[in-house]
User: Fold this.
Amino acid sequence: MATILVHVMPKPEILDPQGKAVGAALPRLGFEGISQVRQGKRFEITVDGEVTDEVLANVRTAAETLLSNPVIEDVVQVKVVREGGCGCGGHGHGKAEKDLLA
Amino acid sequence: MTARIGVVTFPGTLDDRDASRAVRLAGAEAVELFHADADLKDVDAVVLPGGFSYGDYLRAGAIARFAPIMEKVVDAANGGMPVLGICNGFQVLTEVHLLPGSMIKNEHLHFICRDQTLRVENAETSWTTEYQDGEEIVIPLKNQDGQYVADDYTLDQLEAEGRVAFRYVGWNPNGSRRDIAGITNERGNVVGLMPHPEHAVEAGFGPDSREAGRMGTDGLAFFTSAIKGLLATA
Assistant:
Protein backbone atom coordinates (compact mmCIF):
# COMPACT_ATOMS: atom_id res chain seq x y z
CA MET A 1 0.00 0.00 0.00
CA ALA A 2 1.11 3.50 -0.73
CA THR A 3 -0.36 6.94 -0.42
CA ILE A 4 -0.32 9.53 -3.13
CA LEU A 5 -0.89 13.13 -2.16
CA VAL A 6 -2.55 15.52 -4.57
CA HIS A 7 -2.54 19.22 -3.83
CA VAL A 8 -4.99 21.48 -5.62
CA MET A 9 -4.92 25.27 -5.34
CA PRO A 10 -7.10 28.04 -6.75
CA LYS A 11 -5.38 29.61 -9.75
CA PRO A 12 -3.33 32.68 -8.76
CA GLU A 13 -5.55 35.00 -10.79
CA ILE A 14 -8.76 33.65 -9.23
CA LEU A 15 -10.01 35.44 -6.15
CA ASP A 16 -10.04 33.03 -3.21
CA PRO A 17 -12.88 34.21 -0.94
CA GLN A 18 -12.23 31.55 1.71
CA GLY A 19 -8.51 32.28 1.91
CA LYS A 20 -9.27 35.99 2.09
CA ALA A 21 -11.68 35.47 5.00
CA VAL A 22 -9.14 33.34 6.87
CA GLY A 23 -6.45 35.94 6.17
CA ALA A 24 -8.68 38.65 7.58
CA ALA A 25 -9.45 36.63 10.73
CA LEU A 26 -5.83 35.91 11.68
CA PRO A 27 -4.83 39.45 12.73
CA ARG A 28 -7.99 39.64 14.83
CA LEU A 29 -6.70 36.63 16.76
CA GLY A 30 -3.34 38.26 17.26
CA PHE A 31 -1.38 36.50 14.50
CA GLU A 32 0.62 39.35 13.07
CA GLY A 33 2.81 39.59 9.99
CA ILE A 34 0.69 37.37 7.73
CA SER A 35 0.04 39.20 4.50
CA GLN A 36 -2.00 36.65 2.56
CA VAL A 37 -3.71 33.25 2.91
CA ARG A 38 -4.82 31.10 -0.01
CA GLN A 39 -6.82 27.97 0.71
CA GLY A 40 -6.53 24.82 -1.36
CA LYS A 41 -7.28 21.11 -1.07
CA ARG A 42 -5.17 18.10 -0.17
CA PHE A 43 -6.24 14.64 -1.25
CA GLU A 44 -4.67 11.51 0.26
CA ILE A 45 -5.17 8.67 -2.17
CA THR A 46 -4.32 5.16 -1.03
CA VAL A 47 -3.54 2.60 -3.69
CA ASP A 48 -2.99 -1.14 -3.50
CA GLY A 49 0.42 -2.46 -4.48
CA GLU A 50 3.27 -0.68 -6.18
CA VAL A 51 3.01 2.85 -7.45
CA THR A 52 3.85 2.15 -11.06
CA ASP A 53 4.01 4.80 -13.77
CA GLU A 54 0.59 3.61 -14.88
CA VAL A 55 -0.90 4.07 -11.42
CA LEU A 56 0.62 7.52 -11.20
CA ALA A 57 -0.67 8.45 -14.63
CA ASN A 58 -4.14 7.35 -13.54
CA VAL A 59 -4.01 9.45 -10.39
CA ARG A 60 -2.73 12.41 -12.36
CA THR A 61 -5.62 12.04 -14.81
CA ALA A 62 -8.06 11.80 -11.89
CA ALA A 63 -6.50 14.93 -10.42
CA GLU A 64 -6.98 16.84 -13.62
CA THR A 65 -10.51 15.59 -14.40
CA LEU A 66 -12.37 15.18 -11.11
CA LEU A 67 -10.20 16.50 -8.26
CA SER A 68 -9.60 19.86 -9.90
CA ASN A 69 -11.42 22.14 -12.33
CA PRO A 70 -8.82 23.55 -14.74
CA VAL A 71 -10.88 26.71 -15.19
CA ILE A 72 -10.35 27.79 -11.60
CA GLU A 73 -7.76 25.46 -10.07
CA ASP A 74 -4.26 24.09 -10.62
CA VAL A 75 -2.93 20.70 -9.58
CA VAL A 76 0.22 22.03 -7.93
CA GLN A 77 1.64 18.79 -6.61
CA VAL A 78 1.32 15.03 -7.02
CA LYS A 79 3.52 13.33 -4.45
CA VAL A 80 4.06 9.66 -3.68
CA VAL A 81 4.52 8.56 -0.09
CA ARG A 82 5.66 4.94 0.17
CA GLU A 83 4.19 2.72 2.87
CA GLY A 84 4.92 4.00 6.36
CA GLY A 85 5.17 7.56 5.25
CA CYS A 86 2.84 10.04 6.83
CA GLY A 87 3.00 12.41 3.95
CA CYS A 88 4.22 15.34 5.94
CA GLY A 89 7.42 15.34 3.94
CA GLY A 90 9.16 17.19 6.71
CA HIS A 91 10.92 14.84 9.09
CA GLY A 92 12.24 12.01 7.07
CA HIS A 93 10.20 9.03 8.22
CA GLY A 94 8.63 8.54 4.82
CA LYS A 95 10.83 5.76 3.43
CA ALA A 96 10.90 7.13 -0.07
CA GLU A 97 9.10 10.20 -1.18
CA LYS A 98 9.00 11.36 -4.71
CA ASP A 99 7.86 14.80 -5.67
CA LEU A 100 6.15 14.70 -8.99
CA LEU A 101 5.25 18.25 -9.78
CA ALA A 102 2.42 18.31 -12.28
CA MET B 1 -48.50 17.64 -29.52
CA THR B 2 -47.44 18.27 -25.95
CA ALA B 3 -43.76 18.99 -25.40
CA ARG B 4 -41.98 16.64 -23.00
CA ILE B 5 -39.45 18.35 -20.77
CA GLY B 6 -37.24 16.20 -18.59
CA VAL B 7 -36.16 17.29 -15.10
CA VAL B 8 -33.09 15.54 -13.72
CA THR B 9 -32.85 14.49 -10.09
CA PHE B 10 -29.38 13.94 -8.62
CA PRO B 11 -28.80 12.91 -5.01
CA GLY B 12 -29.09 16.26 -3.20
CA THR B 13 -31.18 18.01 -5.84
CA LEU B 14 -33.77 20.24 -4.15
CA ASP B 15 -35.73 22.06 -6.82
CA ASP B 16 -36.75 19.22 -9.14
CA ARG B 17 -40.36 19.31 -7.92
CA ASP B 18 -40.61 23.07 -8.46
CA ALA B 19 -38.99 22.77 -11.89
CA SER B 20 -41.48 20.05 -12.88
CA ARG B 21 -44.31 22.19 -11.63
CA ALA B 22 -43.04 25.13 -13.70
CA VAL B 23 -42.90 22.91 -16.77
CA ARG B 24 -46.51 21.83 -16.23
CA LEU B 25 -47.76 25.37 -15.55
CA ALA B 26 -46.11 26.45 -18.79
CA GLY B 27 -48.06 23.79 -20.66
CA ALA B 28 -45.65 20.90 -21.16
CA GLU B 29 -45.40 17.43 -19.73
CA ALA B 30 -42.75 17.12 -17.01
CA VAL B 31 -40.75 13.89 -17.22
CA GLU B 32 -38.73 12.71 -14.22
CA LEU B 33 -35.17 11.78 -15.15
CA PHE B 34 -32.86 10.03 -12.71
CA HIS B 35 -29.11 10.59 -12.44
CA ALA B 36 -28.26 6.89 -12.49
CA ASP B 37 -30.23 6.11 -15.66
CA ALA B 38 -28.52 6.74 -18.98
CA ASP B 39 -31.96 7.33 -20.49
CA LEU B 40 -33.58 10.60 -21.55
CA LYS B 41 -36.98 8.91 -22.06
CA ASP B 42 -37.52 10.63 -25.42
CA VAL B 43 -37.83 14.11 -23.92
CA ASP B 44 -37.64 17.22 -26.10
CA ALA B 45 -35.74 19.36 -23.59
CA VAL B 46 -33.94 18.95 -20.26
CA VAL B 47 -33.83 21.03 -17.08
CA LEU B 48 -31.00 20.53 -14.58
CA PRO B 49 -32.55 21.97 -11.42
CA GLY B 50 -30.98 23.59 -8.37
CA GLY B 51 -29.93 22.13 -5.07
CA PHE B 52 -26.77 20.60 -3.68
CA SER B 53 -26.02 17.55 -5.79
CA TYR B 54 -23.67 15.24 -3.90
CA GLY B 55 -23.64 17.79 -1.07
CA ASP B 56 -21.57 20.19 -3.19
CA TYR B 57 -18.64 17.98 -2.15
CA LEU B 58 -15.37 18.68 -3.95
CA ARG B 59 -16.88 21.52 -6.03
CA ALA B 60 -20.51 22.33 -6.81
CA GLY B 61 -21.57 20.10 -9.70
CA ALA B 62 -18.22 18.31 -9.92
CA ILE B 63 -19.50 14.83 -9.12
CA ALA B 64 -22.91 15.19 -10.75
CA ARG B 65 -21.30 15.82 -14.13
CA PHE B 66 -20.09 12.22 -14.18
CA ALA B 67 -23.56 10.76 -13.54
CA PRO B 68 -24.72 8.35 -16.28
CA ILE B 69 -27.57 10.67 -17.32
CA MET B 70 -25.10 13.47 -18.09
CA GLU B 71 -23.49 11.62 -20.97
CA LYS B 72 -26.92 11.57 -22.64
CA VAL B 73 -27.58 15.20 -21.75
CA VAL B 74 -24.26 16.27 -23.30
CA ASP B 75 -24.96 14.32 -26.50
CA ALA B 76 -28.47 15.76 -26.75
CA ALA B 77 -27.23 19.30 -26.05
CA ASN B 78 -24.58 18.97 -28.74
CA GLY B 79 -27.35 17.83 -31.06
CA GLY B 80 -29.33 21.01 -30.39
CA MET B 81 -31.75 19.95 -27.65
CA PRO B 82 -32.72 22.82 -25.33
CA VAL B 83 -31.00 22.39 -21.94
CA LEU B 84 -31.51 24.73 -19.00
CA GLY B 85 -29.26 24.64 -15.93
CA ILE B 86 -30.54 26.51 -12.90
CA CYS B 87 -28.17 27.28 -9.99
CA ASN B 88 -26.59 23.90 -9.21
CA GLY B 89 -27.66 22.86 -12.71
CA PHE B 90 -25.64 25.79 -14.11
CA GLN B 91 -22.67 24.62 -12.06
CA VAL B 92 -23.08 21.12 -13.52
CA LEU B 93 -23.16 22.59 -17.06
CA THR B 94 -19.86 24.41 -16.50
CA GLU B 95 -18.25 21.36 -14.91
CA VAL B 96 -19.28 19.23 -17.89
CA HIS B 97 -17.97 21.95 -20.25
CA LEU B 98 -21.23 22.64 -22.05
CA LEU B 99 -20.80 26.22 -20.84
CA PRO B 100 -17.51 28.06 -20.20
CA GLY B 101 -16.24 29.45 -16.90
CA SER B 102 -17.06 28.30 -13.40
CA MET B 103 -18.69 29.35 -10.15
CA ILE B 104 -16.73 29.95 -6.96
CA LYS B 105 -17.87 31.02 -3.49
CA ASN B 106 -19.70 34.33 -3.24
CA GLU B 107 -17.20 37.14 -2.80
CA HIS B 108 -18.60 37.99 0.67
CA LEU B 109 -19.01 34.28 1.61
CA HIS B 110 -22.64 34.73 2.67
CA PHE B 111 -25.47 32.55 1.44
CA ILE B 112 -27.78 34.92 -0.44
CA CYS B 113 -31.54 34.50 -0.71
CA ARG B 114 -33.43 37.38 -2.26
CA ASP B 115 -35.64 38.52 -5.10
CA GLN B 116 -33.14 39.57 -7.77
CA THR B 117 -33.59 41.88 -10.72
CA LEU B 118 -31.97 40.66 -13.95
CA ARG B 119 -31.71 42.14 -17.41
CA VAL B 120 -32.34 39.79 -20.32
CA GLU B 121 -29.33 40.42 -22.57
CA ASN B 122 -30.12 37.80 -25.19
CA ALA B 123 -33.77 37.10 -26.07
CA GLU B 124 -32.88 34.67 -28.83
CA THR B 125 -31.85 31.59 -26.86
CA SER B 126 -34.11 28.53 -26.67
CA TRP B 127 -35.16 29.63 -23.17
CA THR B 128 -35.60 33.40 -23.66
CA THR B 129 -37.56 34.04 -26.88
CA GLU B 130 -40.65 35.08 -24.95
CA TYR B 131 -38.69 37.97 -23.39
CA GLN B 132 -37.57 41.20 -25.02
CA ASP B 133 -33.90 42.17 -25.31
CA GLY B 134 -33.15 44.46 -22.37
CA GLU B 135 -36.27 43.43 -20.44
CA GLU B 136 -35.87 43.48 -16.66
CA ILE B 137 -37.28 40.57 -14.69
CA VAL B 138 -37.39 39.66 -10.99
CA ILE B 139 -36.83 36.07 -9.89
CA PRO B 140 -35.44 34.52 -6.69
CA LEU B 141 -31.72 34.01 -6.17
CA LYS B 142 -30.38 31.64 -3.50
CA ASN B 143 -26.83 30.37 -3.44
CA GLN B 144 -23.45 30.36 -1.78
CA ASP B 145 -21.26 29.39 -4.73
CA GLY B 146 -22.64 31.86 -7.24
CA GLN B 147 -19.67 33.97 -8.24
CA TYR B 148 -19.24 33.49 -11.97
CA VAL B 149 -15.59 33.54 -13.04
CA ALA B 150 -13.79 33.04 -16.34
CA ASP B 151 -10.59 34.42 -17.82
CA ASP B 152 -10.74 37.76 -19.63
CA TYR B 153 -10.42 36.14 -23.04
CA THR B 154 -13.49 33.97 -22.39
CA LEU B 155 -15.44 36.91 -20.96
CA ASP B 156 -14.60 39.09 -23.97
CA GLN B 157 -15.66 36.28 -26.28
CA LEU B 158 -18.97 35.81 -24.43
CA GLU B 159 -19.67 39.54 -24.68
CA ALA B 160 -18.69 39.76 -28.34
CA GLU B 161 -20.87 36.81 -29.31
CA GLY B 162 -23.89 37.98 -27.31
CA ARG B 163 -23.65 34.95 -25.08
CA VAL B 164 -24.19 36.80 -21.81
CA ALA B 165 -27.86 35.89 -21.45
CA PHE B 166 -28.61 37.63 -18.14
CA ARG B 167 -26.94 40.30 -16.05
CA TYR B 168 -27.59 41.36 -12.47
CA VAL B 169 -29.21 44.78 -12.21
CA GLY B 170 -28.90 47.14 -9.25
CA TRP B 171 -26.66 44.95 -7.15
CA ASN B 172 -24.20 42.23 -8.00
CA PRO B 173 -25.07 39.71 -5.27
CA ASN B 174 -21.99 37.50 -5.45
CA GLY B 175 -19.12 39.28 -7.16
CA SER B 176 -19.71 37.64 -10.55
CA ARG B 177 -17.44 38.94 -13.31
CA ARG B 178 -19.11 41.66 -15.35
CA ASP B 179 -22.37 41.20 -13.39
CA ILE B 180 -23.04 37.97 -15.31
CA ALA B 181 -26.04 36.01 -13.98
CA GLY B 182 -26.38 33.57 -16.87
CA ILE B 183 -24.84 32.59 -20.18
CA THR B 184 -25.61 30.55 -23.26
CA ASN B 185 -23.63 28.37 -25.65
CA GLU B 186 -22.81 29.32 -29.26
CA ARG B 187 -25.94 27.69 -30.60
CA GLY B 188 -28.23 29.24 -27.98
CA ASN B 189 -29.86 25.96 -26.95
CA VAL B 190 -27.94 25.55 -23.67
CA VAL B 191 -28.58 28.20 -21.02
CA GLY B 192 -27.30 28.33 -17.44
CA LEU B 193 -28.06 30.88 -14.75
CA MET B 194 -27.75 31.15 -10.98
CA PRO B 195 -31.18 32.69 -10.16
CA HIS B 196 -34.31 30.53 -10.14
CA PRO B 197 -37.00 31.11 -12.79
CA GLU B 198 -38.91 28.01 -11.60
CA HIS B 199 -39.71 29.77 -8.32
CA ALA B 200 -41.47 32.63 -10.13
CA VAL B 201 -44.15 30.92 -12.20
CA GLU B 202 -47.37 31.13 -10.20
CA ALA B 203 -49.12 34.17 -8.74
CA GLY B 204 -49.25 33.90 -4.97
CA PHE B 205 -46.00 31.95 -4.70
CA GLY B 206 -43.52 34.16 -6.53
CA PRO B 207 -41.42 37.21 -5.73
CA ASP B 208 -43.07 40.51 -4.88
CA SER B 209 -44.18 42.32 -8.02
CA ARG B 210 -44.93 45.98 -8.57
CA GLU B 211 -48.64 45.21 -8.24
CA ALA B 212 -48.70 43.07 -5.12
CA GLY B 213 -46.73 40.81 -2.79
CA ARG B 214 -45.65 37.37 -4.07
CA MET B 215 -47.42 37.86 -7.38
CA GLY B 216 -44.31 37.81 -9.61
CA THR B 217 -44.33 35.26 -12.43
CA ASP B 218 -41.37 36.56 -14.44
CA GLY B 219 -39.78 33.11 -14.61
CA LEU B 220 -42.58 31.42 -16.52
CA ALA B 221 -41.41 32.69 -19.93
CA PHE B 222 -38.24 30.53 -19.67
CA PHE B 223 -40.45 27.49 -20.00
CA THR B 224 -42.99 28.91 -22.46
CA SER B 225 -40.06 30.01 -24.66
CA ALA B 226 -38.70 26.48 -24.83
CA ILE B 227 -42.15 24.97 -25.42
CA LYS B 228 -42.95 27.44 -28.20
CA GLY B 229 -39.64 26.66 -29.89
CA LEU B 230 -40.22 22.92 -29.61
CA LEU B 231 -43.73 23.12 -31.03
CA ALA B 232 -42.53 25.34 -33.89
CA THR B 233 -39.96 22.75 -34.94
CA ALA B 234 -42.22 19.74 -34.34
Q: What stands out?
A: The radius of gyration of chain A is 16 Å.
